[in-house]
Specification:
single chain; 161 residues; alpha+beta; four-stranded antiparallel β-sheet; two-stranded antiparallel sheet; 3 helices; elongated
């Protein structure tokens, strides 16, 4: 009889060991896949943030674009921020934020600001675009440019809701 009890105990130990090892394997596979998915999302946000930066750091299309005829949003003229283009970008973003996302060819929310205060029609504004209370995977893209004859940093924030 002692032999049967020992065999039953050994069988329970084998089953428990198999379940434990299976649990460890599932945990590691899940962790590896989750990490890769998060990295893919961050890479995509970084790519789309750079799309915005490339467009903003251009003259746009047409070169003298306005809210009605814009094909590509750009805020520079002669490698300096053009105040009228900046105002047009602000108006477009304020009136039709979704259109700006479409023009930038992005699917995530964004906003941009400068290291100096932005002045639109004599009023100081903090940002152009939409802010979020609780962004997920927030990415910041930085470019240097000239605003009001001073060097400034243009910051673009893009995130997933």
């Amino acid at each position: 009889m002692k032999t049967k009890k020992a065999q039953a105990w050994g069988f329970d130990l084998i089953i428990a060991s198999v379940l434990f090892i299976l649990g460890i394997v599932i945990f590691f596979v899940y962790t590896i896949n989750t990490s890769q998915q998060a990295q893919d999302k961050i890479d995509e946000l970084d790519y789309q943030g750079n799309l915005i930066a490339e467009d903003l750091m251009s003259e746009g299309s047409p070169a003298d674009w306005n809210v009605e005829n814009v094909q590509k949003i750009g805020i520079l003229t002669n490698n300096k921020i053009n105040n009228s283009k900046l105002e047009n970008f602000y108006q477009l973003s304020d009136q039709n934020y979704q259109k700006t996302k479409s023009l930038f060819d992005i699917k995530y929310d964004y906003f941009m600001n400068l290291s100096e205060e932005i002045s639109i029609n004599g009023e100081n504004i903090e940002r152009i675009g939409r802010a979020s209370e609780n962004p997920t995977n927030l990415i910041k893209i930085t470019r240097f440019t000239i605003y009001n004859n001073n060097p400034v940093t243009l910051n673009i924030y893009i995130w997933q809701e």
